[in-house]
Specification:
Serine Threonine Protein Phosphatase 5, Tetratricopeptide repeat, 0% strand, globular
Length: 214
């Protein structure tokens, strides 16, 4: 499922439930309808992927509802039972636990996932954030962040705004210089330039971590 679909789903529930002040039952109806609409293109025989899609839509649209998150968690557990080697399902299961603030469980799942996909730097970086949020020794989570930055460099992937964010979160000694260089090199006619510039100029590491792991 694409980000476009997830944002559309999120926007739909916001309009219905917040602006219109719809009743809870009505919101639930919209949630179920949107889940069906977003995931209907997935073949019925691909049950694991369909369950994962349904769970991700629910997490995206109704992330503050404990019952909805439990429903999504059960769907992902069912999907994992069908496809135990599917890393996408495993990662989304972890992020479902994150939304429920069950950080220890999420960390355990993601570390298991990393054993099978060591080059997934996004997942690796998130495990570092979890360790910091859980109060691991500073030396441990700092070493975790640094290992991600070094691995990205070794894979010659040290470019783009995602890399800049990675070094900022890692609080690398040269993070500010890397950020300044990236901002100086932005193309003024690129449609994303203004939003990227504003985002990086206002970037706050602690707020970033709290946003992802409240």
């Amino acid at each position: 499922m694409t980000k476009r679909w997830r944002w559309a789903a999120c926007l739909l529930l916001t309009i219905v439930c917040l602006v219109a002040g719809a009743e809870v039952a009505r919101c639930q109806d919209y949630l179920e309808q949107t889940v069906d609409r977003v995931c209907r293109r997935i073949p019925r025989e691909n049950k694991a992927r369909k369950l994962e899609c349904q769970a991700v839509v629910i997490m995206s649209m109704d992330s503050h509802n404990a019952d909805s998150l439990k429903t999504a968690q059960k769907m992902l557990e069912q999907a994992h039972a069908i496809a135990p080697n599917d890393l996408s399902i495993l990662n989304n299961t972890a992020f479902c636990y994150v939304k429920q603030k069950k950080y220890e469980t999420a960390l355990s799942i993601l570390e298991n996932s990393l054993n099978r996909q060591p080059n997934n730097f996004g997942v690796k970086n998130f495990t570092c954030m979890l360790k910091e949020r859980l109060g691991y020794p500073r030396s441990e989570y700092r070493a975790c962040y640094h290992s991600v930055v070094q691995a990205v460099k070794e894979k010659k992937m040290a470019k783009g705004i995602n890399y800049v964010i990675t070094v900022l979160v890692a609080d690398e000694p040269d993070a500010q210089a890397i950020k300044d260089k990236y901002l100086a090199g932005l193309n003024p006619i690129n449609k994303n330039t203004e939003s990227e510039k504003k985002y990086l100029e206002n970037f706050n590491r602690d707020e970033y971590i709290r946003k992802h792991l409240p």
